[in-house]
User: Which sequence fits this backbone?
């Protein structure tokens, strides 16, 4: 298992970590298999989506904020219920196939760490399987 | 593959199954690898989220009910369309990394079975990979 | 890694690909393990849900359209932001356990490719792990 660290810059912040995942595969000399990218936080998630137009992750942040407003008469006293829900909507892990030492992603796909209660320093865990 | 059984208590019910997943790892003598936790139902899902404050899963249930109301003019004659949608929003499986025989989860993370059409007796399947 | 191709028929279209996933397992002579089904697109996703009543996927399409309307004052100039968001809500991959050469799915479960910006010709990648 390997760990990478990211620093989010605002409450909601999608951070492209694709190159870090490729570096992990390179570092362990992985040829073919599967990488699980896991977020050990409960107010952040992970997803795969478009990297070509920065308006796509920006729109995604906006739509998720509309779907799950920050203020909603929630019971959780920390006040960040919306972040917990959005974390589960995106999910805590993604799988990426590796072939010939390269991540197999579609033309426009990147792996995004999804901050929903930043800014914070966050960890991401990487694990290979065969 | 191993199977565990849970009993949900109400229509929507998040049940912490983390200790059962750890017991599965213990039982097969797993040292390092990945466990896939899979829900073989279509009106229940699975997610990883906070276990410290019971208001968090309670709020999540409330928010999901707001996002996908039980009554919505749906076509499905069984009347539980909302449960099907929420099952897919949470997802049918999660992955948990195992290291030195212990589940690798963040400080506040637990694995939750998510009932959306209970109360029912439900099954969860566990599968290790290396 | 193996690739299958599907042709969606409308903007939103849930396509049952379970038999293709079973054929992949048969083709590689897989006995026990896990199959990762991965969608290399950013406006389509994948989920597991009910196959008995076609009203279930039809309702799911309707509910997702209500949650994330096609027109929403989005910034992304291609105009398909809603499809990107719905792709991430469903997710880019599912895991299916294989036992005794058969996919382990619940009685009512099928694997659905989820088109959100069709009609298009789409690819799905399959990868086994042990």
Assistant:
């Amino acid at each position: 298992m390997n760990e990478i660290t990211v620093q989010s810059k605002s409450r909601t912040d999608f951070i492209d970590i694709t190159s870090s995942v490729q570096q992990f595969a390179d570092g362990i000399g992985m040829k073919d298999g599967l990488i699980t990218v896991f977020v050990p936080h409960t107010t952040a998630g992970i997803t795969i989506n478009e990297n070509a137009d920065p308006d796509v992750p920006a729109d995604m942040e906006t739509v998720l904020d509309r779907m799950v407003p920050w203020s909603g008469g929630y019971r959780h006293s920390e006040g960040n219920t919306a972040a917990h829900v959005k974390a589960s909507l995106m999910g805590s892990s993604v799988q990426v196939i590796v072939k010939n030492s390269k991540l197999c992603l579609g033309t426009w796909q990147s792996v995004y760490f999804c901050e929903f209660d930043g800014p914070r320093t966050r960890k991401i865990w990487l694990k290979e399987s065969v």
Remarks:
- Chain B has one domain: 2-129.
- The mean pLDDT of chain B is 96.
